[in-house]
Amino acid sequence: MAGFTNPAIYIFDLELAERGVLQVRYPLPYSDLTSPPEEERKRILASGRPLEFSHTLEDQIGGQLEAGFLITGFYEDTYEKGTDLISEYMPTFIATRAIKPPALWQ
Q1: Contact 23, 12 (CB under 8 A)
Q2: Rounded Cα distance, 38 and 41, in Å
Q3: Phi, psi dihedrals of residue 59, rounded to the nearest 5°
Q4: Rounded mean pLDDT of 44-48?
Q5: C-alpha neighbours within 13 Å on the C-beta side of residue 56
Q6: DSSP character string of 56-92
Q7: Exposure string (b/e) for 32-58, b if CB count within 10 Å is 16 or more?
Q8: Domain of 30?
Q9: What is the domain count for the chain?
Q10: Residue 30 per-residue DSSP state
Q11: Is the peptide bond before 91 cis (omega within 30 degrees of 0)?
Q12: DSSP annotation of 28
């Protein structure tokens, strides 16, 4: 089982989303270290909060397949209704269930 944030949320300005505005701002993949402008990046680093990075769906799901896993389940979820603007429009979390056949254990 692997779970991750839907990378599509990172195209939005998340601070504006918290204030009720969905504005596309960043291309994927997103990185707190390289995507925001320098002043915003400095503020993020000074805040002490964990840094955020996204990957593309190709990286997330394709990487599992390239490693020999067979995906046997795919699930999506959101934040609780009314607590996250992006979740009102799309699933914000993704999980996959996968197995690696014994023949590929090496």
Answers
A1: yes
A2: 5
A3: -65, -45
A4: 94
A5: 7
A6: -HIIIIIHHHHTT-EEEEEEEE-SPTTS-TGGGTS--
A7: beebbeeeebeebeeeeeeeeebbeee
A8: 2-104
A9: 1
A10: P
A11: no
A12: S
- Distance, first Cα to last Cα, the chain: 20
Type of residue at 23: Q
pLDDT digits (tens, 9 = 90+) for 51-99: 999 999 999 999 999 999 999 999 999 999 999 999 999 999 999 999 9
Distance CA 34, CA 65 (A): 28
Only one residue has tokens 């979740």, namely 87
Count CB neighbours of 14 within 10 A.
14
| Cα 46 to Cα 42: distance, rounded to the nearest angstrom | 6
Going by C-alpha positions, the residue among 79, 71, 77, 74 that lies closest to residue 93 is 77
Tell me 55's DSSP state.
-
DSSP state letter for 31: B
- The tokens for 96 are 């996959």
Q: What is the pTM of this model?
A: 0.85
